[in-house]
Amino acid sequence: MAVTYCLPGLYRSRIRKVVSNMPDQQVPEILSADFRLNSCPDTGSPVRDTARPGIRFQHLFALNAIAFVQPVLHRLESNTAFLRLEQFKLSSVICVVSILMLAIPTILLGSQLIVRTVSSRCTAWMHVLQMFVLFTLMTMTGLMWVSQSIELIMYGIYDHLLPFVAVTAGAVLTRHYVRRNWLGEVLNLMALGSVVFPAVFFFSGSVRSVLNPPPETPKKTVLRAESPAPVLVIVFDGLSGMSLLNEQHTIDAGRYPAFARLAETGTWYRNASTVHSRTVNAVPAILTGCLRPADLSPEESSYPINLLRAVYETHQYAMTVFEPFTRMCPRELLEKPSLRSTAEEVRMLLSTLSALWVNTSLPRDVAGGIRIPGTWFGFARSSEVNIRATTGLNMYAWDTDRRAQFEHFIRCIEPADKPGFYFLHVVLPHDPWTCLPSGNDYLWVPASFGIHLGTSSMNPEVWRTDPLAVNRAWQRHLMQLQFADHCLGKTLDQLQNIGLLEKSLVVVTADHGISFIPECSRREPSSKTIADLIPVPLFIKLPGQTTGRISDRNVESIDVFPTIADVLDLELTDPVDGASLLDESQPARPRKTVEGTDGKILIDPEFPEKYAAVERMLQVFGSSTSNDRLMNLNTRPELIGTSVAGLTEGASRAGYTVLHKGGSHVSPERPHQVPCYLEGELPASISVAEPVELAIALNGQIHGTTRTFTDAAISRSWSCMLPESAYRVGNNHLQIFEIHDRPDGPVFGELQISILNY
Fold first, then answer.
1. What digits encode the pLDDT tens for the residues 579-591?
2. Nearest Cα to Cα of residue 567 among 190, 307, 188, 297
3. pTM over 0.90
4. Which of 72, 329, 577, 608 has the fewest CB atoms within 10 Å distance of its CB?
5. CATH assignment of 637-755, given 2.40.50.90, 2.40.50.180, 2.60.40.10, 2.40.10.10?
């Protein structure tokens, strides 16, 4: 009888018609029961041709594969770096795929069989309801894919409208499923075709290279460094080379003494620039010396020839690598025995894929509370780092424990039998901005993908119109840069303490810059932001070099790898796009190249706006030698230091302010956490047609002044940075005043503080 279900509907209906007109005794026993069950006339049952559990399972199986399995397997296939990072075993992935394919159809059919013991009619209605839900979710998944692909929100079609379309489509498809045989036949064929999804997944080259890599073939060429020397490479993240400069376009030694120290003993390439505006491409360009398509995954399989692999292949170095983002480290250093059981891996992978499906297949309002683990995006877990390890790969989380990363990295710099190769890619001064110049924290809640107060909610990379909001973020960025300088200084001190600083090759650079211009993107290069985004610092101190020099040669990040290879006398097996900076015979590069989202940009190396970012920075913050305002971005600087006791008191219109970030308490157990950055909001009951000016006092003295922002979307919000030195361990008395200007002087109305920290 099962064969009849593979026949076209026309022939099957004819067979049923013939059989239904025959006496039961003339129908072969093996067929009689099935035909009477599946071809009975209309008896009120909502489903035709699906009474058999096997057929129902096929239909549930087909819809489950389209609605759930295919979307998550496609995304997993596109992000094999996640599989590599988590080191999932092949057996665990097979178990997960099997569960995805079979669990939902089995559970749904099982519930039907349980209900069938009570009422077969209820079983049919339950099956219809289940099919309706699956049809709706299948449609919702497709609609969300369309919405994200062509950005329907730009046309006024918001995600919360899509469920209504999906429900309508689900109802229409369910009606056809109940009343027409053709849709059931399509689902039968789709059930057979659904096995293609796991087959395509497991046989794809990217998945096989991770779960079942081919045995490595012996290399024909053995790499060797003929002039091995200790190597230290630090790649800062999100650091514009212009941020380090003063009025003379030299390193501001007052703010950044460690960078100035490096410039005094090595070569500072002042005209260095990145070739990509995104870390995912910029770091591989540094490590490979090559320009590659922007859609390449930052894995070693995409960039087989890179600095880390080349040094490893020499077997002459004790390698220590800190890399939180790319997966370009040699697998031999990357892979560690997984201590998780298969059951733990299955549970972890199912949890991640479930969160991924919810976030990509359902509206944002529904998925907002379900977070995708950071490892899906390539961000490691710091909790899994062996803090005692001094060699190999150490993968900290992307945006947290940055002080711990540097401290661990510095501990790894120690005398060894082999020359040391120390590589650090650190997310500094990149946001989240949480660090004070001293190394203390003013925010300690990870917020790597949070929306900054001065950015647009529609596009968190675009700054709003109010210069004060943008400058406040810029201030926090520069303060975190001072912390990065502090860490660099401690690293150089450690090299010097063990007697290796003069003997070592030291390379310090960054992957890309960042821009702080109202109404412009902080990450995408344009005519307004190019001067901020493409310059990167590049310092190279050669072994034995003790005298500094400045080079204005047109240098790009792709020159770093061939320069290191040249210093070590390491022959490169494949050609690169960059050139060694020690090779004076190389012709001058005629232009600079940078890749952005919208394509390649070519500019003259001495373009007129080259130092525009420096001039804007000096106007806002001054320099360490001229009217330094970095720590005091106050709207009413004349009030700083004023005692609260001498203020003229008045009434406040606002009455209170909500405090979202910052506070007044410094815990004795965590004295390095100083809540000196404040963000707040005034109540909706007052008019903010004009900005409201505020004074913030701590322990009876005004230490900061600010105002509400002029941008309409955040017109009740304000922020302020208080000096760290104003806080004492324990409780501090925080007061916020609304300032009213009058002819006889300002009047201060104290606001009640409602704390709503997050």
1. 999 998 888 899 9
2. 307
3. no
4. 608
5. 2.60.40.10
